[in-house]
Request: fold
Amino acid sequence: MKVVDKLFNWYLSVNALPYWVVLGMDILICYLSGIFVFWLYYHGAVALGNIDLLTKTIFMYMVFNLIGFKLFHTYSGIIRYSSFVDLQRVGLAMLLSLGIAEAMHYVVYHWNLEFVRLEGRQIAAMYLVATIGMMAFRILTKSLYDVLFNTDKGMRTLIYGVRDGGVGLAKIIRSERPCRFLLKGFISHDPSIKGRILMGTKVYVADDKLAEHIKDMNIQAVLVSPLQNEYFRNDQKLQDTLLGLGIQIFMSSGEKEWKQDDDYSQVQLKEISIEDLLPREQIHVDMDAIGRLLRGKKIMITGSAGSIGSEMVRQIAVYEPSELILIDQAETPQHDIRLMMHFDWPEIKAHTIVASIANEERMEKIFRTYRPDYVFHAAAYKHVPMMEDNPSESIQNNVWGTKVIADLSVKYGVRKFVMISTDKAVNPTNVMGCSKRICEIYCQSLNRKINGQAGSRPVTQFVTTRFGNVLGSNGSVIPLFEKQIKAGGPVTVTDPDIIRFFMLIPEACKLVLEAGTHGVGGEIFVFDMGQPVRIADLARRMIRLSGAKDVKVEYTGLRPGEKLYEEVLSTKEDTLPSFHEKIRIAKVCEYDYEAVNSQIVSLVSLSHTYNDMAIVGKMKEIVPEYVSNNSKYSVLDRKDVS
Reply:
């Protein structure tokens, strides 16, 4: 059987079956079609008696056929990959050739040349039979190939989605060589098409009986149609059914938003990760409008080597800024950014600088040298437990560093300063969240001071963006869970009821750019993070996705400063709509700049004493809503201590 497979595969390959062979087969089909039609009209004896003259006549019409073949390239496709488009080309080519033949046969016979005189209907019948024959040849060849090579070598597969995306995906997997997936049916939520036959396979409904069908057919994989990615992400019941059965799930890779009329031959499938399964809505941002604002400008990005900062670099570089001033104190990750810019965007003048934003003298020189138009401030210490143990560093880096960059932005005429904050700044319960809230307060009060004076010209516009956890960021919970699962467990979760909001890094950065470039100054923009995710459920789904057995989830208790749930807005705050459905403007308390500046200077001075209690006490004075949770600093919140 292997010898036959190899022989058949060689015969149908592009080298063994070149274009002239396909053209030869089409000519043979046209010739036999002419003989067949003549035989139908005049019976066998007459046809055989005039075979030479009939052959001459058919080949005369073949000249017209060749015109259609050439114009529509009917012979250029690989037969085993034939599709509706190839059949359509055959039909159009023969229709054109028929039109030419019907017009020309009167001219030819007018010259009294020696040909069999065919009537118009006979010519039409000949072309119809030839068209059917050529299409049948392509369909039969493709079917034979599929039968011989679509064996159990591939994974037994269902496709989620039945319309253009699902059918397009089915065509792709059937034409793949070697065969990875063996199509056994489709999954749909529409009960009206239950049991229908599509591409020779059955359509199954995603109901309670689906698991039984999957077991009966020994299904190994499910492919998600590119048009159904969002629906699949939000169908946790179906996901859990598939993961519980050990089914491998594949989705289209990349961030492209597929549409109904797209070319699905470009779809690249990858096995899902947990990020692919978390429910979220597609975020649409007018990146071209953002690009028009940033193109040709000098852009500074602090924290450029971090998860958010590095993605900001990638998204902004696409729009050809005149210069990028990239600042980070982490040497090795910053070196990676330097290499990325060198190889991916060599035409952009990129300055990769290793420095701390808290070094005022160094930052002054950088601003004086490069004079940026826009500053995206992503640099910050962000890990809650680390900052809970090191409040002095939280103040010196997050608060003082932000003040340094903000003040220099005003001094050197930066058009817009965009600070990236966090949902932990809302009703903070830990040092890190409070430090970011102080940064928000300072930037907003500075914007009010410099832009609120009557008759003053617009100076630097300060905009703050606030969102929750981003998937795949450095130090996030997902890489930790993956490591624990590989080690055999247990997977540690602090509390069974703890929940978090999640967003993809690219989506978060798009919203940062949208808010930053469209904000007019003084706003705190809040992102719609979608539905919260219970971390314990996330851990269990990751275990099922990994296929690991007997991995337990272990609860360790809330860490110092950690909340059960994150808020994006304070309970005292309200929001206003903005220019984007996923972005709202927080209405927050406004502070006097002079008072805030004085308190921050005092706080920074206090941070150099490294007296944790005194530092946190001052932070609580600046941010009264800061109430510690499960922390040694909780004693500072006790008003009734006797």
